[in-house]
Amino acid sequence: MSEAPSREAPGREAPMATVWLGGCSGCHMSFMDLDERLLALAERVELGASPLSDFKDFPPADITLVEGAVANEDNLEVLRRVRARSKVLIAFGDCAVTGNVTAMRNLFAVEDVLDRAYRQSATVIAGLPLGGDGVVPRLLPRVRPIHEVVQVDHFLQGCPPDADRIFDLVLALLEGRTPEIARRFG
Amino acid sequence: MTPEDLNERAAAERARQQGFRERLHCCTAAGCLSCGAEELKRDLTAQVEARALSQQVEVQGTGCLGLCSRGPLVRRASDGAVFHELTPSEAGLLLQPGDAAAEAALAAKRLDTAHPFFAHQQRIVLENAGRVDPERLESYLAADGYSALARAVSELSRQEVLAELRASGLRGRGGAGYPTGVKWELVAKQPGTTKYIVCNADEGDPGAFMDRSVLEGDPHRVLEGMAIAGYAVGANQGYLYVRGEYALAIQRLQGAIRQAEREGLLGPRVLDSAFRFRVDIRIGAGAFVCGEETALIASIEGGRGEPRPRPPYPPEKGLWGQPTLINNVETFANIAPIIRHGGAWFAAIGTERSKGTKVFAVAGKTAHTGLVEVPMGTPLRTIVYEMAGGIADGGRVKAIQTGGPSGGCIPERLLDLPVDYESLVGAGSMMGSGGLIVMDEASCMVDVARYFMEFCRDESCGKCVPCRAGTVQMHQLLERFCAGQAGEHDLALLKELGTLLREASLCGLGQTAPNPVLSVLRYFPEELDQRLHHDAEAAAAAAATEPA
Amino acid sequence: MSVKTLTINGKTVTGLAGTSLFNTAWEAGIRIPRLCHIGGLSDIGACRLCLVEIEGRPRLHPACMTEVEEGMVVRTESERLHAHRKLIVELLFAEGNHVCAVCVSNGHCELQDLATSLGIDHVRVAYQHPRRPVDASHARFTLDLNRCVFCRRCMRVCDEVEGAHTLDVAGRGAELRLIADLGQSWGTAESCTSCGKCVQVCPTGALFAKGSAVGEMTKNRAFLQYIVTAREKHEWIRK
């Protein structure tokens, strides 16, 4: 993956993307657990945008895996753009599917959450990272699973989903089959 | 007291009443009390004494005169005239008969009793309202009170009482309309000697006050009905389950039970017969679900007021596992007249399948609001337009709501429907206990549905999942519609939840909770549609940034 | 005692009069989804997952509280029943705070298993994220109401088997909550014998033994049948 493969490379059928919203990146770690199957996948599909690659604007994709819940204004904006540019969008892992751990802060008011994180627990500088510069996106009042905001085509449960299921799902989609996904929360 | 004593006491009271030149009946039901009826009655009594008229004029309290919006009301017995919104000085004019100036001054306060609001009524349940003093047993006796019970225990066999009931065609007035005679027979046929009579006086539909009015205005009539039921089915103990909010009703019932026990109308030897019947009051703690019979039973037993699945039904296994007859207040209030006049008399009133009369509490945007009792089969249009006078300021009727949170809305164009159980159910609503709310063009039907769903959400006991969690979700979806943030998938989900609640909830509360929504879907789909956000994703994104 | 013959899912089965449809189906190898029912305790018909269709009856009936009758024709699976069960489980996930990934019962949870067996891949109704307390005042057990589904098995086992009736419910609707004694912290509830039966019958991770980490809380239900058999048949047999 050191070189971004070009779109024109032979045998590569469709651009695929992964997105990282409000989550721990564990689902992406699980994606990396595809190990040698990553190579098999690379034969079939070009990986466009992902947290691993550098892109300025999300390029159109046939298949997009979205990790994480919608937690802040940036997540919301990114998700809507990604949805508009993706043919098939997959809620990738429990945070995207249910809100999961990310949504546990919904039990508390946003102000209290920020206060605990940036004032009470501060080790160096106590203060909220909310300058007027817009660098740190504002938290939404509630964390939401992605299907509450955009249309989702497939749900891949798990915290994280194991590599086998990721591979089965992507392969099925590439081969035009209806994926049969083993289901279980957690 | 023997039946003969009863007749003598009644005759003596009638003679006493006829000894007065005039009798003034001050409505002392909760509606009029809230606008000063008690003070008015006290003042009027003082004026009578001051003018030394105590031997000639009687001032007494009485039950609901019907037109609650115009209280305090006073009825003049000599000519049946009813006066509204009286001040003490105006009431004093009633003590000057033959005084043309006084009569002229009163004219403006005299209700037109020929108005359809009164003229179209046929009073059976409310026959004593405005005539009988609810706090005096003698007053009830003078109006043939307890004569039906006397007839039952001294002249009729249990089977004969049941036969009259069956012949009357009376159906339960609590809302569902189960044939009362059949229910009584079910209980009567159960083996065993311990059976119970329960009167459901947990009236809880928003806007409904029919039962309260009967309990406050004519408590003995309910006790008499229960005692006759006890005799017919072989029960010796009755419970009156009254909601705690009905303080005045409870007070009057307690007084009535004491009087009846003292006079031997209830107790170990009812009217000197071998029939023993006792009535105790149980006071509800304010849960709507306790109007559901199995929850009500659990509450009387001292448990948490929660329903249980039926079967077994209460006639088989009710209070403490014993056969139990549960009827509501209005049903019991119909019993004495049926026994007095016979089942055939009752069956001659009403329609083919719905007999007798029904009391409605008319509320909402109409010119006149209050209690009306009409024969079954009366078109809704007659009640809404002729009796209640249509919309107060000349506006248009949009819909009426019957059956409270379990019922639905009926659009104006269907108002020719007659009042009977089947017609209302066919129109997607139900008779319910008799609440009738009239809405004008300004009313938003989605908001009405949202209101009733909120009510059900707050009143769900929480035992079964569909009702506990489903009403929360349905209410939130309706709020989204009201806020213009709902998309197509919200509509689909609303329908799916409605089906789940109807088919899978444990008791009637959850099963009927979707009815107001379903009736909006049926008759006012455009109102939901207007509130539908056609860019669902934009709506969802907007919702995501708003505080929950 | 008389025997009734009936049909469940096209299969002819027999059951003793007075037996529930649920148990009769179970003995015939037909599994009906359930949450509040557990063999050995009384039934309350609250979860509505075991609703079945009975021919000739317009309503759905809870299999746990419906007695077998001669000639009954019962269906435990249909499109409608499946849709209802799915939505009920979704409602349960949405009304509490069920974060499987960090739950002591992850992998041994009846709610999680129901979602899997019903094919639930996401929850369509809105998550409520209610703020519910965790009661860790008891020396050995913890009650985490975030994971409670109000099946009331704990209440019933405490009352019917242990005879303590420490646990009960208070409040209503969405405000329903499980309480110990008079609504005090569990650790101060003097009626509690610390027997732990409530923990074992709890279908989720709402009740667990202290010290359990994620996925570690497995439940042992065998004791219940042992006690019930002993009580009913006076046979002290461990199966």
Short description:
Chain A has 186 residues and is of the alpha/beta class. Chain A has six helices and seven strands. Chain A has a five-stranded parallel sheet with strand order 2-1-3-5-7, sandwiched between helices. Chain A has a two-stranded antiparallel sheet with strand order 4-6.
Structure description:
By secondary structure, chain A is an alpha/beta fold. Chain A has helices spanning 26-32, 37-44, 73-85, 94-98, 110-120, 163-174, and strands spanning 14-20, 45-47, 61-67, 70-72, 86-92, 139-144, 154-156. In chain A, the strands form 2 sheets. A 5-stranded parallel β-sheet of chain A has the order 2-1-3-5-7, with helices on both faces. A two-stranded antiparallel sheet of chain A has the order 4-6. The relative contact order of chain A is 0.19. Chain B has 4 domains: 19-64 and 74-110, Glutaredoxin, CATH 3.40.30; 137-347, NADH-ubiquinone oxidoreductase 51kDa subunit (Rossmann fold, 3-Layer(aba) Sandwich); 357-443, Ubiquitin-like (UB roll) (Roll); 446-542, NADH-ubiquinone oxidoreductase 51kDa subunit, iron-sulphur binding domain (de novo design (two linked rop proteins)), CATH 1.20.1440. Chain B has helices at 3-18, 30-33, 37-50, 88-92, 100-107, 116-119, 137-142, 147-155, 158-168, 180-189, 210-217, 219-233, 247-262, 293-300, 329-341, 343-347, 380-387, 421-426, 445-459, 465-482, 488-504, 508-512, 515-523, 525-530, 536-545, and strands at residues 22-27, 57-62, 74-76, 81-83, 196-201, 237-243, 278-284, 324-328, 357-364, 370-375, 397-402, 408-411, 435-440. Chain B starts with a helix and ends with a helix. With 239 residues, chain C is α+β, with helices and mostly antiparallel strands. In chain C, the strands form 3 sheets. In chain C, strands 2-1-5-3-4 form a 5-stranded mixed β-sheet, covered by helices on one side. A 3-stranded antiparallel β-sheet of chain C has the order 6-7-10. In chain C, strand 3 and strand 4 form a beta hairpin.
Question: What's the level 1 CATH class of chain A?
Answer: Alpha Beta
Quickly count the helices of chain A: 6
User: Secondary-structure element sequence of chain A?
Assistant: EHHEEEHEHHEEH
Assembly annotation: heterotrimer
In total, the number of strands of chain A is: 7
The helicity of chain C comes to 10-25%
**What gap, in angstroms, lies between the N and C termini of chain A?**
30 Å
State the CATH architecture of the largest domain in chain C.
Answer: 2-Layer Sandwich
